[in-house]
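## Example record

The block below lists the input lines for one assembly entry, exactly as stored, with component labels intact.
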Amino acid sequence: MIPGSNQAPLLEVRNLRVEFPTRRGTLVAVDDVSFSISPGEVLGVVGESGAGKSLTGAAIIGLLEPPGRIAGGEVVLEGERIDNLPYERMRRIRGARIGAIFQDPLTSLNPLYSIGRQLVETIQTHLPLSAADARQRAIDLLKEVGIPGAETRVDHYPHQFSGGMRQRVVIALALCANPRLIVADEPTTALDVSIQAQIIALLKRLCREHGTAVMLVTHDMGVIAETADRVAVMYAGRLAEIGPVRDVVKNASHPYTRGLMGSIPSLGVRTERLTQIDGAMPRLTAIPRGCAFNPRCPDAGQRCTAERPDLMPAGVTRAACWLYHSQGVGPALARETANA
Amino acid sequence: MIAFILRRLAQAVGVLLAVGFIAFSLFTYIGDPINAMVGQDTSMEDREELRRKLGLDDSPPLQFARFIGNAASGRFGLSYRTSDPVGRLILERLPATLELSLCAAIFAVGLGVPLGVYTGLYPRHWTSRALQAVSLIGISLPTFLIGIMLILFFAVILNVLPSFGRGDTVKFGWWTSGFFTWSGLKALILPSITLGLFQLTLIMRLVRSEMLEVMRTDYIKFARARGLSNRAINFGHALKNTLVPVITITGLQLGAIIAFAIVTETVFAWPGMGQLFVQSVQFGDIPVMAAYLLLVSFFFVVINMIVDLLYFVVDPRLRGMGAAAAGRH
Amino acid sequence: MALIDSFRRAADSDIWHSFRASPMTMAAAAVTLFIVLAAFLAPLIALQNPFDPANLNLSDAMRPPMFFGGEWSFPMGSDDQGRDLYSAILYGTRLSLEVGLAVVFFSMILGIGLGLVAGYVGGTLDAIIMRIADVQLTFPAILIALLIDGVVRGVISVKRHEEIAVFVIVASISLAFWVQYARTVRGSVMVERNKEYVQAARVIGLPRWLIMFRHVLPNVMGPVLVIATINLGLAIITEATLSFLGVGLPSTQPSLGTLIRIGNEYLNSGEWWITIFPGLTLAALVLAVNLLGDWLRDALNPKLR
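Predicted structure tokens for the full assembly:
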């Protein structure tokens, strides 16, 4: 069952487009991406590096780094459009209604301030609490994220914590003002494998307890399979497939998703060998015409090299692939032996 | 931390001893101090007598030890030029130099850091670009030329500020201060700007590049994601992280300010140690030179010690044990 | 080898390109070229030889510049000795440039020599040289140059000093500037000496000094050249400052700094030109040289920034 699937969406992203003007023309890093997140839901966003998943997250929290900019579409949080808010109003939403967790806990914390100070300043920015109350809340948050001896640790500095502990602190910082949504960008990538599972479990538990929705950006399908309610797969700046996690993992519709799942050892049924997708994701400067995946796609037809598919129903999921269109992919492509 | 401070202290004493040795060598082997003390017609026997009395025929290590002992208590012998005790000559002029250096340092840091922060936060704004260009000129022009330009404009053409001297001073024991009279304060303006301008541009450029660096870090991005106000981010988080390199350079520059006071004092006929030093160089007055050298190196060493201690205040990572390995960037 | 390489690289690619791309650098190069040419041609284009007392006439003293009530024979006015400022500036610039170049040359030789020895021989010698360098680095170069100059004055007579003033000043500034070269060269040598080509040269049985000069030295020349360019501006400023302080070049042989010092005494009485013209020349020269130095540093080796 997907929690909250029948309620009004918490976050809606409609036709989002992110551009980077460069000297050699404009790069489209995120192209026509639409999805929604329900309250309390965990949406996993997967894709290779450069697929645009982190930029989508940055666009939602309004922290795209210049010269990157939102060139089209809208981001709607609880019915309120937030992608065009002035900086100061967006700032009050960040941390209060949308929390964020970044990849590297080692560099996310200011080394010169105690974690208590960083927690208290975040709490007091968003909540009308006295210094003493804010400190108590900071200690409570640290306890909640499982930091032993929170009462003394609150006055310690980031360098006195291990990587896993620091990521717990970062999670506590994201939870300071009880946001409705957390955008977590590769929260476990920089951590030891043994600690990754703990952090993911913690994140999952906390969000269930607080009813917080999570947009979990990662390239790790294992993490997604364990955590997410739904999955969005991105390829070359576009959504390739989106659907409930079971179906995307077990019965992927898009050939790219199938390739992605086939390349993961622990998930599939025991097979002779892992499959791999030939070739590499195109650079943003050279996205092919039609479906961006067509040069690597085993099922591509002539239509795939000419027309770009939008998301369409494909079994339980929705996939951007002509295979699921009533007219199909068109005549087969004459290809040189690519898989020799 | 204690070990770190002790080691720094030992290094400081080492530097002072090395400089002391140079000063001692100058004093003892270059130019005969006896010649400087006696008249032309003094007999060889009298000279030898004087030499014995002054201990100049003792073994060199003994002489060196005595020299250091004397220096520590402020006795540097007599000036070749004026035959006054060197210690007194320097002490008379110390307040003028220290007050000037202090004002210049306040000017340089007080203006250099905010300008650096501003140009670092808004690197593309036209005022930042203009400041950046002007600062290049500030770094290239020799100090004395800047002083002369200021005199020409404010003293000669506009005739609003004095071009030489300290103005009226007030005595507090042996210390004379220009801080308590109107003319004394007015006299401080041009020399302080002249002396501080180079350091100002240096500090500004340094703070700017450090700010640019820090603003790109993850913890600033994360601070934005936490919704902190720009004020808290720029001044609470970014500025504090630029402090370690800025303290290092500023500390070194404070030493440089005392040394460069030589030039400024000459331009503005400022009655400080620097002017005394230039006069003694012109005259080859070695006792004064040696004493000045020792005093200035003492200041340098003290400033360096303070800088090292400030690191501990600013950076919690250094406070733990085994901090000695971390030091300057 | 690296030297030739860096010039070859200079000719074809990035350096030339970055030069063309920066109008500021091109302007700086033009100004430098103009000043150097004028200084070089001084005997041809000057109106008198300002160093020759026979040319000076006290009745010509303190003439104002041409457009301020002066006349053609003293286009920039004259100083207290009746010296034509225009000619004095040409000769003074020449002197400043000569001293600056000489300082760069000698401090480079000294620094490279000591750096090579320290890095290649190592041990006690290395420790001694580098400790001296450390202590010297604590003090601003100007202080060290002043001190050395003062010591020399303590030893020799005033008249003798005036005769050899140029050599004294070159020596004292050079002795203040060698440290940076020595540290750079030593650092590079420490890296280079363990490389295979040096080991190979040693196996062949080449003498130490030959290995150092033929094989190690050329590989450390890149950064040294960058330091040299940046130090040229610094050396010119230091000379001007010493002369301004009255411990550099004497007023019988005025450099730009000396001229500014002479003029400074008359600034309050309205004879501004004696200071301002040499001052502007010095400012233009140093600024142009520094801009070129900055550009060269960025173009040759972005890492040195």
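Chain A has eleven helices and twelve strands. Confidence is low (pLDDT under 50) at residues 1-5 of chain A.
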